[in-house]
Amino acid sequence: MFSRISKVKSISSKALIFSSTMQIGDCSYIDGNSQALAIQKKSDNFQPQEFQFSDFSIFKMPLYIPRIDEPFLPQFSNPNPFIRVGNVHIIGISTSSVVGVGNVGHIRMESRVHHTRQIPKKNEETQNEDGSNET
């Protein structure tokens, strides 16, 4: 891998979460994986063990990575050995994302999210703790 020097004046991010990467400089390999269950449930009793990743087929499916069959002949011309970056301001980096300044040989990022809503229909009544009914 061809290496250069990365110079960054400033970089700021309010949030870097869920298997995300901020890479300044050269790197051979970045591998990020994020799995999330997003559960919306109208209930007074929520038990985290109610939902397991193994209960949902999206987390069992193999990752499909398409092959590149086209001929690829890279040509590089790097007359300047520096990668210069001024000021970078980022609001958020989330769920298997990469912000990179520099060279990366290989990146593989995967994010799988399953959203579930368990909200009663309008004609179903739910009972509050004080015994009153709510529709």
Verbal overview:
A two-stranded parallel sheet has the order 1-4. It is built from no helices and 8 strands. It is mainly beta and about 140 residues long. The mean pLDDT is about 85. The chain has strands at about 5-15, 20-25, 25-40, 80-95, 100, 105-120, 125, 135. Strand 7 (about 125) and strand 8 form a beta hairpin.
Profile the largest sheet. 2 strands, parallel
Task: Specify the overall morphology.
Answer: elongated
How big a fraction of the residues is strand?
A: over 45%
The count of strands amounts to 8
The helix count comes to 0
* Unreliable parts: none
From the helix content, strand content and strand pairing, which structural class follows?
A: mainly beta
How are the SSEs placed, and which strands pair?
Layout: E1 5-17, E2 21-24, E3 27-41, E4 82-94, E5 98-101, E6 104-118, E7 126-127, E8 133-134
Parallel strand pairs: 1-4, 2-5, 3-6
Antiparallel strand pairs: 7-8
Quick tags:
two-stranded parallel sheet, two-stranded parallel ribbon, mainly beta
Summarize the structure.
The chain is mainly beta and 135 residues long.
